[in-house]
Structure formats: structure tokens, C-alpha cells
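Input.
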Amino acid sequence: MNTKRKRKGKGKATRKGGKSVALSSKVVRTRTIRQRVKLPAAPEIVYKALTHSERHEAFTGAAAYFPAQLGEEMSAYGGYITGKVLGLFPGRGFVQTWRTTEWPVGSEDSRLEIILEPAGKGTRLTMIHSRLPLEFAPIYARGWRVHYWKPLRQYLSKQMKKENRRSGK
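Output.
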């Protein structure tokens, strides 16, 4: 766990591991979450599930908008999550800013990086979610597992079964 301390009087942050962000005289302590999951579909299919609005909605059950252009705003879970697309790497991953409606006032957006790599017949997804406000990190770490990776795995399993039936495998 990252620990940070505020230097008295000058409003500047000192840090001991991790990152602190100074906002005037307030220091927002942050943390990075790293998760790795194995998914039962090729990286190209996983990429489309995460970055195509209709497919994203299909596995989350909530409204989503994911633009195809850099610099545009994205949203997920009916606007609970918002951000800006910073990088798109079809079949390999993406980078975006990220925040929720619960974000602490004065906190900068976090950064979400998704890396997709072939792993046997599936994909190894690595998520690096940095600059999260420290108090929310455990909540969002669980949220990723419960609200993203589990339903995404179920969605992809169903998609692969349909594909296998169509191709006669």
C-alpha cells in the first residue's frame, strides 16, 4: 500500500512510494491497481467487446459510449464512468482518462491502460489503473472484478459457443 505525507506549511507533497498530487494546499493521495485476467476469446474480440458501445452494453447491461476517435469523451454504466480516449490500439488495448460520479472534488482524472495479449486460445488482459484516489482504490479493485471481468468472461464464453456452433466445432 502506498503511503504519502504532506509537508507542513507549503502545500507541497512528499511521498513514500506511489504518487501524491498537490492541489493548492490539499494533497490527494493516489494508488495504482494492477489486475490480470485470462479471457476465453482472441484479443481482437476482447478489444471490440470493450471498445464498441453496443457490445460493451451487452456485457455490462448499462448504457455506454466509446468513441472511435482520440480525444473524445467516453462513458460507461449510464454515465457513472466518464473519461477521454488517449490511445486506441485495435486488438492490443487502449488508454483513457477515467473517473466516476463519486470522484473527490479537486481530484484529477485517473488513467486506465488496458493491454491485450494472445494467451493460448484466449487473451491475457492486463489492466493498469493509476492515479486513483487512495480511499476508492479497494472499492474499484473489487468493482473491476465483479462488474467488468466476471460479466465480460461470461459474455465472451457465450459468444465463443455461438461462434463454435456456427462453424461446426
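The chain has one domain: 29-164.
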